[in-house]
Amino acid sequence: MSGTSTRCFVAVLLPERVRAGLAAVCAELRGQTRGLSWVREDNLHLTLRFLGNVEPAMLPNIRTAVMTAAGAVEPFTVSLSGLGGFPGGRAPRVLWANVATGGEAMVALYEALETALAARGILRESRPFHPHVTLARVRDPRGAGRIAKVLGAGPLFGEVRVGALHLMRSELDPRGARYSILTEASFGDPSRSA
Predict the structure, then answer these.
(1) pLDDT per residue over 28-59, tens digit each?
(2) d(CA 182, CA 193)
(3) Is the pTM higher than 0.90?
(4) Confidence tier at 193 by pLDDT (50, 70, 90)
(5) Is 56 strand, coil or helix?
(6) Is residue 173 helix, strand or coil?
């Protein structure tokens, strides 16, 4: 790795069948809404923590924190259902799929990650954590009112067996972000981490 910083985040990756279900709903919504930038199907994931630009010297500490957090929990299942927006109200800027069940386990995983990161000198996130999958971001303010109309209860996108954390690299490119895995850490046993 060169001496330049790497844009990173920690995530739970989604199986192909769940990403396909989410993408199908996004394709349907594209026809009803304008002014949104949609997340590509292969990039759909559950973000636990966006880290921003990370200096190469900090990556080993972050990898250790990810493995520590993963080693502290056992696998669990979440279900994705319904649509929401950040911030709430009539003019959301982000459209997301909701974690309908398993949210408490996701919050516990997030807390384990925050604790492990803080022990390695990375400040805790100041915003409250709300488990979700980002589907689109509003580019044009006129799009915010349109997405507000689709928020609420919706289809069941599927269940996900959560068994690993991933430290991801994000590289910007004219066609959108490209993600790659830097570290995969299996749950319940730090020695199973890659």
Answers:
(1) 888 777 778 889 999 999 999 999 999 999 99
(2) 12
(3) no
(4) very low
(5) helix
(6) coil
Query: Residues 6 or more apart from 160 whose CB is under 8 A from it?
Result: 12, 14, 15, 18, 46, 77, 78, 79, 80
Model confidence over 86-106: pLDDT tens digits? 887 677 788 899 999 999 999
Nearest-angstrom CA–CA distance, 105 and 126: 20
DSSP, collapsed to helix, strand or coil, labels residue 62 as helix
Q: Collapse the DSSP code of 129 into the 3-class scheme (helix H, G, I; strand E, B; otherwise coil) and give the result.
A: coil
CATH class of this structure's domain 6-78+102-129+156-188: alpha beta
Tell me, what amino acid is at 9? F
Q: How far apart are CA 162 and CA 107, in angstroms?
A: 13
Q: Kindly state the helix (H) or strand (E) to which residue 60 belongs, with its residue range.
A: helix 59-71
Sign of CA dihedral 112, 114, 118, 121: positive
